[in-house]
């Protein structure tokens, strides 16, 4: 099988490519140039897809003895991921750029280009598993639950899964590093990248302010009493406790949390922790990893990449909406996040959260 191996310059993608070679596939490595100014992105373990990473990926390809190329997808990345990130925050939502990158770049723009060039599959270093099932290929959680990335892959369709290879899904991370060292790969001890790759210093609020400017507004309680001011509602997210700058405690002395962001009035609403409890999640733009479920189905729902999944009942409507009723409340659920639905370890699909209720 002719396989395109996406090589980020990290240890995971290097070992994934090596395993594809060991499996007898005809492997070609490719590094994605996603930044228009790549030399400025990495600070320690932050960032990815930098000039440094491209060099590391090339060295790994040389060790494996496979052809290697760099493909410039920076324009698509800027439009589909970076600009989307800014627009979502400006609209009072909290997006997940890694999930959007998988949906729009790695398993859309990249996979489409690979297929057009005659490749049969795309290999990545994601921690997830693809298994054969009664309805075709199924996406499952990784063996290493601490590294599991099935949540950010919940946007993949059945057609995309049929061309996806995730060779690391059955392996713990520490074993991957040991394997990289035994293969003579220089990236064996390279730190993992963290946070948002295009915000190198991790200061999301400051990065957004540079692009959106100061937008002063009010911070109020649930009754509408003004408690303070902010310089941009985009700098807050539901569930946030720190950085509210209210200046005085609640009457009962308990901490306040962001409960709601209202972009029309540029208002941030704060209140007690229990007001964050959510029992119903509504979503749109569902992406099913197989056939869409019919009628109410018992699932586990996860709303954060590293959050816990909770028992729930989900139902897809004819108009594309998805309603998820949680068996137990969860806190800090924001519009713009994804709700990913599981049955056991299998990913059924995902939807973008539009609203919640208690």
Detailed description of the structure:
24% of the residues lie in helices and 29% in strands. Among the domains are: 147 residues, 3-Layer(aba) Sandwich (Rossmann fold), CATH 3.40.50.620; 62 residues, SH3 type barrels. About 2% of the residues have low confidence. A six-stranded antiparallel β-barrel has the order 12-15-14-13-16-17. A five-stranded parallel sheet has the order 3-2-1-4-7, sandwiched between helices. With 358 residues, the protein is α/β, with parallel strands linked by helices.
Output the keywords.
358 residues; alpha/beta; Rossmann fold; SH3 type barrels; 6-stranded antiparallel beta barrel; 5-stranded parallel β-sheet; 7 helices; 24% helix; globular; tRNA-specific 2-thiouridylase MnmA; disulfide bond
What is the number of helices?
Answer: 7
CATH-assigned fold name of the domain at 2-125 and 167-189: Rossmann fold
**Count of distinct strands:** 17
Broad CATH class of the domain at 2-125 and 167-189: Alpha Beta
Assigned CATH superfamily of the domain at 2-125 and 167-189: HUPs
Give the helix/strand class.
alpha/beta
Strand and helix order:
EHEHEHHEEEHEHHEEEEEEEEEE
> Low-confidence stretches at least 5 residues in length (pLDDT < 50)?
40-46
Fraction in beta strands: 25-35%
Mean pLDDT across the residues is: 92
Quick one: overall form?
A: globular
The Rg value, from CA coordinates, equals 21 Å
| Largest sheet, spatial ordering of strands | 12-15-14-13-16-17
Largest sheet: 6 strands, antiparallel, barrel
Please give the share of residues in helix. 10-25%
The span between the termini is 50 Å
What CATH architecture of the domain at 2-125 and 167-189 do you see?
3-Layer(aba) Sandwich
């Amino acid at each position: 099988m002719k396989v395109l191996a996406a090589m980020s310059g990290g240890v995971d993608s290097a070992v994934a490519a090596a395993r594809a070679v060991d499996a007898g596939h005809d492997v070609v490595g490719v590094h994605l140039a996603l930044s228009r100014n790549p030399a400025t992105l990495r600070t320690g373990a932050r960032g990815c897809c930098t000039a440094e990473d491209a060099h590391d990926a090339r060295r790994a390809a040389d060790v494996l003895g496979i052809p290697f190329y760099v493909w410039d997808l920076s324009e698509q990345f800027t439009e589909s991921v970076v600009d989307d990130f800014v627009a979502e925050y400006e609209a009072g939502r909290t997006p997940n750029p890694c999930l959007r990158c998988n949906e729009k770049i790695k398993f859309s723009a990249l996979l489409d280009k690979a297929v057009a060039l005659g490749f049969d599959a795309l290999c990545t270093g994601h921690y997830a598993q693809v298994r054969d099932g009664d309805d075709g290929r199924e996406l499952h959680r990784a063996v290493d639950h601490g590294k599991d990335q099935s949540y950010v892959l919940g946007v993949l369709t059945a057609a995309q899964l049929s061309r996806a290879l995730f060779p690391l899904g059955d392996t713990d991370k520490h074993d991957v590093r040991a394997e990289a060292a035994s293969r003579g790969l220089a990236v064996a001890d390279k730190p993992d990248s963290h946070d948002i790759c295009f915000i190198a210093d991790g200061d999301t609020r400051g990065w957004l302010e540079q692009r959106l400017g100061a937008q002063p507004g009010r911070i109020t309680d649930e009754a509408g009493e003004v408690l303070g001011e902010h310089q941009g509602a985009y700098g807050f997210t539901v569930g946030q406790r720190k950085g509210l700058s209210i200046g005085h405690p609640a009457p009962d002395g308990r901490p306040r949390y962001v409960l709601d962001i209202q972009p029309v009035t540029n208002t941030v609403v704060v209140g007690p922790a229990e007001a964050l409890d959510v029992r119903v999640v509504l979503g749109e733009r569902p992406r099913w990893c197989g056939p869409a479920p019919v009628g109410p189905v018992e699932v586990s729902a996860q709303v954060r990449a590293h959050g816990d999944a909770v028992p729930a009942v989900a139902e897809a409507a004819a108009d594309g909406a998805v309603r998820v009723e949680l068996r137990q409340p969860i806190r800090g659920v924001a519009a713009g996040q994804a709700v990913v639905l599981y049955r056991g370890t299998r990913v059924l699909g995902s939807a973008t959260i539009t609203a919640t209720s208690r």
